[in-house]
Amino acid sequence: MPEFDLVIRNGTVATASDVFQADIGVRGGQVAALARGLGPGAREIEAGGRLVLPGGVDTHTHIEEPRSPPTASADSFASASASAAAGGTTTVICFARQSAAKSATDAVAEHMARAQRSRIDYAFHIILTDPTPEVLERQLPALVEAGHRSLKIFLTYEGARITDAQALRVLAAGRRLGALVCVHAEHHEMIAFYTEALLAAGLTLPKHHAWAKPMVVERECVHRVCAMAEALDTPVQIFHVSGAESAAEIERAQARGLKVWAETCPQYLVLTADDLDRPGLEGAKFLCSPAPRTVADQEALWEALRRGVLSNVTSDHAPTRYAGPDGKTAFGEDAPFTRIPNGLPGLAARMPLLFSEGVSKGRIDLQTFVAITATNPARLFGLDPRKGSIAVGADADIAIWDPTRKVTLTNALMLHDNDHTPYEGMEVTGWPEVTLVRGVPVVEGGALVGAEGHGQFLPRGPYAMIAPRGVFPTPFNPVDRTLL
Ligand code: DUC
Ligand code: ZN
Ligand code: ZN
Asked: GO terms for molecular function, please (predicted)?
């Protein structure tokens, strides 16, 4: 009689703090035992010579998000979740987008319906593009109570951005309700000024996208968001930090004691602005916002990851096909950079790139890799102790890695519905062989074996990590309108 549904035997288990030899016994989708020499399982996986890691938690993914025609997202929940699992990721947080035309309640309900096809577990950030009193005071409290404990705002992008005055109201709502506010931080008016000037000067190539939003545009806005977070004593996460100057702003805010967390993404660790300058419209494959920067910025980001200034690495998965009427080239080969949809596919590549460029090349240790790809994001977004680590009682979300396998990245390996990967041809060392979600294989030996609909919604309750500090610049609390 087997003692476990599954035993993973003889592997090297890594968490954010330890690396040790152990078998893992799985029962009912959870880790039931963690010790050497466990009894038999109904199924056994031999993991000698392999790393047994917590499945990745990717907390910034655009999955099946409706877009303005003609462009469209290249993935469904079925394909995006397959892609995530191909790269060792077992949980995603994606976006339900409220707009002037749609209530936040409806946006969440519609996205929940789409997510029923997910093969891996998921939660939502609620994007607020029209944060009216009705949304903030009536809809949001119920949505947060239902487990949607994070909000996203854009300070740039026509049609999505909100003003600083609106951002302050969202921050106040996040503080009152216990929801973490995440911010796309770039100075909208500076970008608009630059863009108008570049177009007028005939500088319209993909590489000029990076000229339209240089680092100062991001650095200023990161500083402003930190100041707003300080003024309202509200924790925030800054999304997709792209280089040294923004990382320095974040470090300054953290040194002041603020609860400011920040992520970066693989595109800022392995691509540069030069990639946008590939022949023809090829550079469109690398066009994302913020723009990729320089090699010196990449090294500054690694240093910020090592020192904990940046706490997590996400994909910002936002796939658009290159070809076709809804693709990056929808407006033709001569399209100006302003007509090229922003965003890169990255769900599958995130962990292999991080492992290879980070662990295999000696930039970070294995525990840091686990921390920034799984444990920290799970904690930051209230998914722990169920997600983000390997521990008795946690979900058996596990990626079994061959740390020595060399793989040349191809689009086919990504298991997404996109027609390209910006990482085509890159060689990585280290690859996930099996990805398990709650003990059930989703990808095994590169083949998709997990069923659509296996994924579960992860409601998130209140959690201490994002509790405000209770520190304001004056003895007045402007959110609750009380004296301290
Ligand atoms: N930048 C974003 O902010 N979102 C999706 C794609 C991108 O490049
Ligand atoms: Zn963004
Ligand atoms: Zn994004």
From this structure: hydrolase activity, acting on carbon-nitrogen (but not peptide) bonds, in cyclic amides; metal ion binding
Angle at 50 between CA 457 and CA 402, to 5 degrees: 80
Query: How remote is the CA of residue 240 from the centroid of ligand 3, in Å?
Result: 8
Question: How remote is the CA of residue 286 from the centroid of ligand 2, in Å?
Answer: 15
Residue 405 reports pLDDT greater than 90: yes
- In the block, residue with structure tokens 């003692």: 3
Q: Is residue 412 part of a domain?
A: no
Residues 10-54 have pLDDT tens digits of 999 999 999 999 999 999 999 999 999 999 999 999 999 999 999
Of ligand 1's listed atoms, the one at least distance from the Cα of 240 is: 3
**Angle at 443 (CA atoms; ends 365, 57), nearest 5 degrees:** 45
Q: Hey, what are 268's tokens? A: 């800022």
Using CA atoms, how far residue 288 sits from 75, 113, 153, 372, 443, in Å, is 17, 28, 17, 22, 28
Q: Is 96 in a helix, a strand, or coil?
A: strand
**Residues 310, 306: Cα–Cα separation, whole Å:** 8
pLDDT digits (tens, 9 = 90+) for 361-390: 999 999 999 999 999 999 999 999 999 999
Domain that holds residue 93: 55-377+460-466
Nearest Cα residue to 57 out of 85, 93, 91, 94 = 91
3-state secondary structure of 373: helix
Domain assignment present for residue 388? The answer is no
343 lines ligand 1 (CB under 6 A): yes
Residue 333 has pLDDT above 90, yes or no: no
Distance CA 284, CA 279 (A): 10
- In this structure, the residue with its CA closest to atom 1 of ligand 1 is 289
CA-CA distance, 25 to 188, in Å (whole number)? 51
Q: Residue 76 has which token pair?
A: 């469904």
**Residues contacting 17, CB < 8 A, separation 6+:** 367
CA 52, CA 292: separation in Å to the nearest integer? Answer: 32
On whether residue 216 sits in a domain, the answer given is: yes
- Is residue 253 included in any domain, yes or no? yes
Structural domains in the chain (count): 1
